[in-house]
């Protein structure tokens, strides 16, 4: 069956799920799930001596769902440690509901082969794990969810977490956990907070046990069953880089300059506006161009959202941005700023982008700048599969913020090596084209024909303006027309839109 | 064009292609290609290599190409260079054939 953007979804994977019908088509009342809570009596200790002991005390059994957060990124030791311990205990057939997975989690391949993990839901997949799954490692397709979509799924009970293992940079013995203080800091614990709210059992794992009370806490004691101290939660250099730097790549700078012109001329760039930029080279550089223009015109932003980086913190401290809403701190400067700056707010993934709560902050966004691996002539975006059809990316907050923001700008080079970015049809749709407004490339921009208002505004701006078809042809005239990737019938990934409907599937590559 | 020895042109840098050409006894062009964009462009890269050699009148050659996403113009230039080196020709280039590609 085809969904409303024409992607073929095989009957076998639909299985009671709905097909995507539009960004806000599914908007009825929802009933929230609630966790089971085992009360703690005065005098009871939550501290256990090992991960194994925590697993046993929590009563983990075959077939349950376990969860993790990805705030430790490529430096994470927690997930591999815990899954190794589970395997040793002989527990099998688990669903892994991680907020995302990276190259560091390639040992999971072994635990999928030995039957410990049989289902996965995640935002991202990278490295050996992603390659193996793309080649058909798992019987059950992976469910790819956006950050807002995962929060929605947990609140709706679509993901029922039995046991959450949440790494924290520091904790006291009663479970007040922080990401902003400790030996290896990650800053915001925004994704983990949803797990702590809805899991039946919550285990905090830390390498820095501090005196009670460890406040302010990202996750408070009321949500925590057990606390485990381990030697190391992760590799600090993999958890957060020192400071995100601005790109010197001239192509990226040109894209950033065009993008900032688009924003400045869009009508949304005025006092009190709000924005989100990714951490990619061009996206980040846009903030530098915007900063200069904000100073020139004497305007300030009411808030900036997202993955927060050093340049955002600097603009907060300069008074150019009034508030930072931080679901994930991308570098050490941002991680440290949370405890230092009163107006740097740690938010959870539901507050960030869940489409089915009473209003996530993505709804308040004026401008978002996002990247793309591929964009097609319908403006659909792929940030998940490479041009060879193998998964190597993450859904992230892409479709969430694109749906929420008034102006969604995609920044991408027209070609990467010999691979065109603008194509007839993307390999995998993560974000539907109807939520995308402008594509900015190093060759020029293309405006979604739905936005006739913007087309009119950009008529007199000195940026080359094309139709998206013209940009596609321009790319093909340089690199040639790529042969389509050949897939088999087996579905290895189901891509959920943020509202829980199926927007696309990823098939096994030939 | 008659090939008399093994020759190489190009690098393994991104957006380049390294082309090794050697003479072969049987009358046939054999291409061994490794490419980072094999799935999308493998067919086209082989075609450009073959057409370039045919235009030069090369009939017996073994080509070992390692591609890092080179554009067609780069592929043609590297094949051309490697073929001339393999033929031992110095200075007497067939500009008519070469100019045709630049027309």
Automatic annotation (TrEMBL), chain A:
Where is it localised? Cytoplasm
Q: Which reaction does it catalyse?
A: citrate + acetyl-CoA = (3S)-citryl-CoA + acetate; citrate = oxaloacetate + acetate
User: Quick check: keyword DNA-binding in the entry?
Assistant: no
**SUPFAM superfamilies, alphabetized:** NagB/RpiA/CoA transferase-like
Q: Which UniProt keywords apply?
A: Cytoplasm, Lyase, Transferase
EC number(s) recorded for this UniProt protein: 2.8.3.10, 4.1.3.6
- List, in alphabetical order, the Gene Ontology terms for molecular function in this entry: citrate (pro-3S)-lyase activity; citrate CoA-transferase activity
Q: Supply the Pfam families for this chain.
A: CitF (PF04223)
Organism of this sequence: Fonticella tunisiensis
- Can you say what this protein is called? Citrate lyase alpha chain
Choose one Gene Ontology CC annotation of this protein and give it: ATP-independent citrate lyase complex
Keyword Transferase in annotation: yes
GO BP, one annotated term: acetyl-CoA metabolic process
Reading the lineage from the top rank, the first entry is Bacteria
Q: Which InterPro entries match?
A: Citrate_lyase_asu, NagB/RpiA_transferase-like
From TrEMBL, chain B:
The keyword Phosphoprotein is assigned to this record: yes
| Key words of the record | Cytoplasm, Lyase, Phosphoprotein
- InterPro entries, alphabetically? CitD (IPR006495), Mal_deCO2ase/Cit_lyase_ACP (IPR023439)
State where it is primarily located. cytoplasm
Q: Which residues carry this modification: O-(phosphoribosyl dephospho-coenzyme A)serine?
A: 14
Q: Which domain of life is it from?
A: Bacteria
Instruction: Recall the GO molecular function terms of this protein's record.
Output: lyase activity
Q: Which Pfam families match?
A: ACP
Q: Is DNA-binding found in the keyword set?
A: no
Q: Name one GO cellular component term.
A: cytoplasm
Q: What is the stated purpose of this protein? A: Covalent carrier of the coenzyme of citrate lyase.
Describe the subunit structure.
Oligomer with a subunit composition of (alpha,beta,gamma)6.
| Similarity comment: family membership | Belongs to the CitD family.
Q: What is this protein called?
A: Citrate lyase acyl carrier protein
Origin organism is: Fonticella tunisiensis
Quote the gene name from the UniProt entry: citD
